[in-house]
Structures are given as structure tokens and as C-alpha cells.
Specification:
The chain is built from 4 helices and 3 strands, in the order βββαααα. By secondary structure, it is mainly alpha-helical. Bound molecules: fe (ii) ion (FE2) (2 copies).
Length: about 180
């Protein structure tokens, strides 16, 4: 008989029930290797002492994530308006993941996650995909820098996970942009 276990993602802290950890966290997108069994969870995972640079970088990361989540929320609604089911699903998933990143960062900062603001976006899914690509690219650059500047191993690991996740998003947008190109030809 396959045992049902409770796991927790060390990047977002969310729990998951299954016979094994998922390939990617359904909440924050982190790789399977960041999952541990819930019984092994340590209470200090998000309770790390921060130096001035680490705090400043986490605050910048929080702004970035909230802004990207708000953008994807707008892109999701724009896709819904034109009955583009694929783009609606993609932007909705991205909005939820970026919101989850904002929540995780808020845990490190020991604050509650700020509300999403309303942001404008493009009408066409193609243009939002292009802007999404640029936003993910900016996030990857920033988090690579934050990873290098972090002194604590836990924060290095956290930013490394975010770089991996945002790279997955970037690649997804790239594939879609390629598809949009083929449609025009
Ligand atoms: Fe997660
Ligand atoms: Fe993110």
C-alpha cells in the first residue's frame, strides 16, 4: 500500500498531501528538492536574522512580486474578456505563484502580505506575454544579485529557488512568443 504523507515546501511553507512530494510546488513553483516531510519542519525556517542589505533586498523583492502579481491579474482578466482560455489559465497561475512569492518574502520580513494594487496591462495576450517575459527577466537579474549579496545560507537558497522558478516562467513565455510568431507567418 502506498503511504499518504504530509509534506511542506521550504520556499513558501505551504503543506502538501500525497504519496510523494510534487515535481514542482503547486503554490510557489519550487523544485521537489525543497520539500520535506511536515514532521521534520523546523520552526525557524522563516525566522532568520537579516543584515541591512538582506532586508533592503527582500523589500525590493516584495515590491517586484506584488507588482508582477498585479500585472498578471490584469493580464488574466484581459484574456478572459477575449475568451482566450489558454492565456487566462496561464496568467492566473502566474498571478497566484507571484502572490505566493510575495507571501513568502513577507514571512522573512515578519509582516503580513500587503494587498495587491490594481495595475494596467495590454489588451492582447501576445503583448502581455512579451511584457511578462520582460518582467520575469528583470526578476531573474534582481534575484541573482540578491542571492550573491545574501550572507545567510537560507536566504541564498531562497533566492536561488526564485531564480529557478522565474526562469521556468521566462521559458514558458518564450515558447508562447515563438508560437505567436508562427501564427503570423
Ligand atoms: Fe512552495
Ligand atoms: Fe516570483
Amino acid at each position: 500500500m502506498v503511504r499518504t504523507l504530509v509534506f511542506r515546501c521550504r520556499i513558501c511553507g505551504d503543506p502538501y498531501i500525497g504519496s510523494e512530494a510534487p515535481t514542482q510546488c503547486p503554490f510557489c513553483g519550487a523544485n521537489k528538492r525543497f520539500f520535506i516531510e511536515a514532521k521534520d519542519w523546523k520552526s525557524d525556517e522563516f525566522n532568520v536574522s537579516l543584515n541591512e542589505v538582506e532586508r533592503k533586498n527582500l523589500e525590493s523583492a516584495l515590491k517586484l512580486e506584488l507588482d508582477n502579481a498585479a500585472f498578471y491579474d490584469c493580464a488574466k482578466n484581459a484574456a478572459d474578456k477575449i475568451n482566450d482560455h489558454y492565456s487566462f489559465a496561464k496568467f492566473k497561475a502566474l498571478m497566484k505563484v507571484e502572490r505566493e512569492h510575495a507571501s513568502a518574502i513577507s514571512k522573512f520580513l515578519n509582516i503580513s502580505r500587503p494587498e495587491l494594487e490594481k495595475l494596467s496591462c495590454n489588451a492582447k495576450a501576445k503583448d502581455n506575454t512579451k511584457e511578462g517575459w520582460e518582467r520575469e527577466n528583470r526578476a531573474i537579474q534582481a534575484y541573482t544579485k540578491f542571492e550573491n549579496e545574501a550572507e545567510g545560507q537560507r536566504l541564498q537558497e531562497f533566492f536561488q529557488a526564485l531564480v529557478e522558478i522565474e526562469t521556468d516562467h521566462l521559458n514558458l513565455h518564450s515558447e508562447n512568443l515563438q508560437h505567436f510568431k508562427e501564427e503570423i507567418v
